[in-house]
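Dear support,

I submitted the protein below through the web form. The confirmation email said the job was done, but the results page showed an empty box. After a refresh the structure appeared. I'm attaching both so you can tell me whether what I see now is the final result or a partial one.
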Amino acid sequence: MTLSQPIWLHVCDVGAIPRLGSRVLPHPSGDIALFRTESDKVFALRDQCPHKGGALSLGIVHGEKVTCPLHAWNIDLTTGHACAPDVGCAQRFAVRIDAGEVYVSLDEAMSAEASAIAAPA
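What the results page shows now:
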């Protein structure tokens, strides 16, 4: 069995994601929300709350969490897990910053689809 190398998709400049806000990367299998914290850390989660499917990108970013706008569930941006007492998980994607540019790690199939719709920097 061989492990495939991650495929890094260039998404945008860090400055294109508002501090304490988000930006959405449209994707045919479900949008990906990129979040930027006050300390300029960037995280990527499937843009769907594990509770009722609310768009996490519309939530409030605080610390390293986002609060879903539908029912106020708090989701940990570092893991995608709902904070206790709530239970559930939003899919997390690896993020890297290189020279101020944001890259998201997608598998090969997702990368091919997303590269066609990623917004130019």
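Response: this is the final, complete result; the empty box was a page-load delay. The mean pLDDT is 88.
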